[in-house]
Amino acid sequence: MRKARLILSLFMVGFLAVSVAACAGSSTSESTGEYVDDSVISNKVRAQIVGNEALSIFDINVETFKGIVQLSGFVDTEQTKQLAGDVAASVDGVKEVQNNISVK
What we know:
Blueprint: H1 2-23, H2 32-50, E1 60-65, E2 68-75, H3 78-89, E3 96-103
């Protein structure tokens, strides 16, 4: 009976250790908390873009990874591209903006 309990206890500890490790982030993947934080940042950037009459959310894609916002898409002028980068940089939680928007 003791042996069965010991084996069950070891199994449970191993299962919990694997579960916790699966939630941890690395340099190439996000933890669950980081994913949620990045989703919030992306949505805030999108909201700022929607709120700016000079920008169109239909032309600009927003992705966030570990606080770094990447903008992509197509706009008509260099000024619009710069404005989108400035708007993204003004959002709380943004560590860096990679502005990969193309001017068409």
